[in-house]
Amino acid sequence: MGKLEKEKSIDDVKTFVTMVAEKQGWGLHPDEGFLEIIIDGLAVNCNRYGYYACPCRDHSGLRENDKDLICPCDYCVPDQKDYGHCYCGLYLTREFAAAGTMPSSIPERRPED
Amino acid sequence: MNMEQKIKDNLSFSEEEGEKLFEDVTLYALSTCGFCKQAIYFLRRNKIQFRFVYVDQLDLDEKKELKSWLKEKYSKSVSFPYLVVDDCNVLVGFKEDEWKNTFSMK
Fold first, then answer.
1. Interface-testing mutation among A39, A42, A45, A58, with chain B (most B C-beta atoms within 10 A)
2. Is the CB of A105 less than 8 angstroms away from the CB of B95?
């Protein structure tokens, strides 16, 4: 499963998502509690599988099979274009974030197995 | 034993007490997912009796079997949260308005 040598802490994951968002010019989910759940989930998945597997999807545990779902996933930008945010509601476009709307569940874009 | 019984007997559902609005309310969720947590909070907040299982915590074979059974039985692609009400009404994803309609709430 490619476990990590050193477990990722919540702070590590917080730093990771903040850096991704800053680099891409994205916002993060505006609700602190919700954001915390996603960050916790990402930490669990990273320590479970050895890579940042999307917390809102199920995984095989094999990096090769899950590589399109490594955060930020391959579907993040297309989802942002259509809905203003990624599948998890983690990464928001600048416009969506400025509007102050809460992300909600969106359809799964990943092709089925 | 048929596949349905086998899957249901082997899964350890967590039971949540509440008002029995329907015969059976079953939630398939991921322990890591924000919308799944919102779905659980919604059911708890509205005091609905339900049971749930965290699919990501199942072993790989069990998970595969469950997902293919769900897809075949309810003819809906499996993503999470996946709610089954009385074995016929299926909600995929958490949209509060849709869930309120299902449970006839304003």
1. A58
2. yes
Q: What is the total count of domains within chain B? A: 1
What's the domain range around B50? 3-102
Whole-number CA gyration radius for chain A: 14
Topology of the domain comprising A10-99 = Ferredoxin Thioredoxin Reductase (3.90.460)
ipTM rounded to 2 decimals: 0.94
pTM of the model: 0.94
**Cα dihedral A108, A113, B1, B6 sign:** negative
Using a CB–CB cut-off of 8 Å, the residues of A that contact B are 29, 34, 37-38, 40-42, 44-45, 55-61, 88-90, 104-108, 112
Digit-coded pLDDT (tens) for A26-58: 999 999 999 999 999 999 999 999 999 999 999
